[in-house]
Amino acid sequence: MIVLASVTSNKHKLPLSTRIKQELNRNLLVYVVLIPVIIHFLVFQVYPFALSFYLTFMDWKIIGEPQFAGLKHWKAFFNDEIAWKALWNTVKFSIYYIVPTMALGLVLALIINSGIKFANFFKGLFFLPVVTSFVIIAGIWGWLFRGTEEGFVNYLIGFVGIDPQLFLSSSSQALIVLAGLSIFKVAGTTMIYYYAGLQSVDKQLYEAARIDGANSWKIFWKITFPLLKPIHFYVAITTTIGSFQVFDSAFLLTGGGPNYATTTIVYYLYHQGFTSLNLSYAAVLSYVLFFIILAISLVQRKYIGQDPKHY
After folding, report:
1. DSSP state, 118?
2. Largest Cα–Cα distance of the chain, in whole Å?
3. For residue range 97-133, what is the model confidence (pLDDT) as tens digits?
4. Is residue 192 exposed (0-12), middle (13-18) or buried (19+ Cβ within 10 Å)?
5. Is 165 helix (H, G, I), strand (E, B) or coil?
6. From CA 183, how far away is CA 66, in angstroms rounded?
7. Which of 90, 134, 198, 299 has its CA 20 to 30 A from that of 242?
């Protein structure tokens, strides 16, 4: 201990330039790799975050100098009926999207993990929408749910005597159709997460359960499902964030209509920032979205983010 203290003391007596040089000689590669990452983080993450917060207190429409506006834009948000409607639409979209996406991904993962023939083929088939351009999928979805008798879904339901539906032109149906599009697009990714989780489950647990007489249903609910809790948490977080950031489907298929029925908070943010050039108010909307996602993520962390205790 005395020798170590003596070495430490002598080290601190060295000139600063010498200590810096020694540190660089020991960890030069670390700094070479780390410094560009830090610069990128500061320029493209920290600076935009700080600038957007600054803009919430300013009036700025790109042209001219920003003018201090205080809490004007924050107050405007609380009185903006369209913003609240957009938030409610986003919440409803999340309800339509999160649980079905998780459930479908788990079912697909169970299918390809069950040892069926051509499992790799089905894995690729289920994952195909993920790697397909969203614009193409949205175009196909728009054709399927065209609100006329020529629409493919209307053509099918006509065989069972159901009248043609408006779908994307209906205020009550459009958001559900958009949620279905997102589920179809993302379920393949969720499947991969669950498949990786299923592969990590100890097979001896299944063997012991079968010896004890448990059927497949009990094995799933008592072993498989609980042990996938870390995957449930991760998928819940990513799907929640994705649902609150939904934009492209509304932009491509409905334009936020009809009657603002598919105007989500991100679509409204885009409209305010890049169509109306009201960047300050768009910054306020972005922070509202940030705080909502943060709060929901913390709740999910509390209730489903703990490590499973089954061993």
Report:
1. T
2. 92
3. 999 999 999 999 999 988 888 888 888 889 999 999 9
4. middle
5. coil
6. 41
7. 198
Residue owning tokens 């088939």: 125
Among residues 140, 136, 144, 111, the alpha carbon closest in space to that of 126 is found at: 111
Q: Which pair of tokens denotes residue 230?
A: 């870390």
Residue 237 lies in a domain: yes
Q: Are residues 128 and 58 in the same domain?
A: no
Look up residue 285 and give its two tokens: 């909307």
Instruction: Give tens-digit pLDDT for 248-260.
Output: 999 999 999 889 9
In angstroms, rounded to a whole number, what is the distance separating the alpha carbons of residues 76 and 74? 5
129 φ/ψ angles, rounded to the nearest 5 degrees? -60, -30
Higher pLDDT: 61 or 245? It is 245
Q: Encoding tokens for residue 252? A: 């491509």
Backbone angles phi, psi at 60, to 5 degrees: -150, 125
Distance CA 90, CA 102 (A): 18
C-alpha distances (whole Å) from 96 to each of 150, 181, 186 are 26, 11, 13
Same domain, 157 and 232: yes
Q: What is the pTM assigned to this prediction?
A: 0.84
The domain boundary, picked from 32, 49, 74, lies at: 74
Cβ atoms of 206 and 180 closer than 8 Å: no
Residue 274 has phi, psi (to 5 degrees) of: -115, -10
